[in-house]
Amino acid sequence: MSNILILSTAHDALGETGNKTGVWLEELAAPYFALCDGGHKVTLTTIGGAPIPIDPNSEPSDEDSSESARRFKGNNDAMALLDKPARLSDQSPGDFDAIVIPGGHGAMWDLAESGEVAAFLAEAWRQEKVIASLCHGPAALTGVEIDGQPLVKGMKLAAFTDAEEQAMELDGVVPFLLESRLREQGAEFQPGDNFQSKTVVDGRLITGQNPASSDALSVLLMERLG
C-alpha cells in the first residue's frame, strides 16, 4: 500500500466573470477511486484546509458524464471530504509516495500563486516522489524551482492547451495561459488534439491534458505505484 496526497484547488471564482469554478470533478474522482480501489491510502488536501468547490460545469448531469464523477457524487464519504480536507501545511512530503494534482480552473489562481504549494512540491521532487497532474493542475508546478531552475525545464509534459482555453473563450479570463507559461519555463510541451485524451510520462512526472485524460492518467499512476 502506498500513501498518496491529492492536492486540490479551493478557489471558486472564475476571474471577474461572476461565474463559479473549482476542481473539475472527474479529474479528482478518477484518480481518487483508482487509488482507493487499489488499496492505497489517500489524503485529500487544500491550502489551509479550505473546502473544495466543484466546478459547476463538471457536475454529472446525464449518462454521458464520467462514471467516476457520478460515483463520487453518490458516495457520502467521498463528498464529505470536500467539506473538510486536510491542511497542506500539516503534511510532510516524506510521508507520501506520490502527489496528485487535479485541475479545474481554480488551480490557476490559488495553486499557481502559492509559495506553500511551491515549497511542498519542490521538497517532494527532491525526495524523489511521483507527481501526477491533470489539465490546469500543472499550474501548481509553475512556481516550483529546483536548484534555481524551474522544475518543468526540459521536462516533457501535457496540460490544458492555449487552443483549448481559446476554444472555451476563457483565454481572456484566466490570469495566464498555462501552455504558454510552461513553455516559457522551458518545458517540452506535448499538445494533443483539443479535448481528446493525451498523457505524457517523463520519469516521475505524469501529466494529462484535460478531463478526457483522467482515466488514462489514473492507469499510468497505478502502474507506476505497482
**How many angstroms does the end-to-end distance come to?**
9 Å
Form type: globular
Mean pLDDT comes to: 97
Number of strands: 11
Unreliable segments of 5+ consecutive residues: none
Helix content: 25-40%
Class computed from helices, strands and strand pairing? alpha/beta
Order of helices and strands: EHEHHEEHHEEEEHHEEEH
How many DSSP helices?
Answer: 8
**How does the major sheet shape up?**
7 strands, mixed
User: Which strand order does the major sheet show?
Assistant: 3-2-1-4-5-11-10
Calculate Rg over CA atoms.
Answer: 16 Å
- The proportion of residues in beta strands is 15-25%
Q: How would you describe this structure to a colleague?
A:
The chain has 226 residues and is of the alpha/beta class. The protein is 31% helix and 17% strand. The protein is built from eight helices and eleven strands. Strands 3-2-1-4-5-11-10 form a seven-stranded mixed beta sheet, with helices on both faces. A hairpin with a 2-residue loop joins strand 6 and strand 7. Helix 1 packs across helix 2. It is globular, with a radius of gyration of 16 Å. The termini are close together.
Task: Give a concise summary.
By secondary structure, the chain is an alpha/beta fold. It has helices at residues 25-37, 67-73, 76-83, 110-113, 115-126, 162-167, 178-184, 214-225; strands spanning 3-7, 41-46, 86-87, 98-101, 130-134, 145-146, 149-150, 156-157, 188-189, 199-202, 205-208. The chain contains eight helices and eleven strands.
